[in-house]
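A quick aside before the break. I want you to see a complete sequence-to-structure record at least once, exactly as it would be stored in a machine-readable document. Don't worry about memorizing anything.
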Amino acid sequence: MSHDSKDQLAGKYLGDTAANYHEGRANTPRRRAELEAIDAFLTRIDPSTLLDVPCGTGSLFDAYLRHSPTSVLGIDVSEDMIAEAAATEAGASDAVSLRVGSAFDRALLDSLGRFDLVCCIRFLNWIDRAEADAVIRSLKPLAARWMIIGVTLEPTDLGVVAKARGRFDVARRDRHDRKRGRVSPKVHPEQWFRDLVGELGLDILDSRTTFTDTGRENRLFLLEV
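That is the input. The structure line, written in tokens, reads:
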């Protein structure tokens, strides 16, 4: 991702966009699938300390707090998203701390210490593969026991026709967004993700699909360090 694209992404969730972010996603099939997956994962592992980066408006904090962690730290590059998170009942919980910062800021991440669980749910589908690779590598040392990673993938077992259609749709959407100065969602190869997980010594304990589309699937992975 170019620095221009990073700036676009950093400036995407401000003002009304931040104020309306949760409402527009609160009751979608994807969000319900995410919440079900997170509940199943946390029931299985029962973490005490949790990092969510980027946390957005804190829309997942309720799901985390249902499992009674001692602390949840949410980090997001948008001050407006952090302000929205702080204004929620969950965000105001004594167990929750909030901080403005970037998932690309390695010095910040290195200063945070370690957490039982590190979550990165709706971010990797907005950045290029090299950046997604770097973010996962930066977050992994912060995870003492587990990670939950959300990523949109082109499945390895996808047929030739479905793969071609999916790539055509992604390229068309990308051209459309570029003309309007917007960052386009990204789809990453499943094999890349699995190879990276193996290289980092992570084990896939579980995975859940949160949505499917032509040639792509969004999945949440529960990884053990």
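Two observations worth writing down. Residues 3-224 form a domain with the Rossmann fold fold (CATH 3.40.50.150). The first strand starts at residue 49 and ends at 52. We'll return to this after the break.
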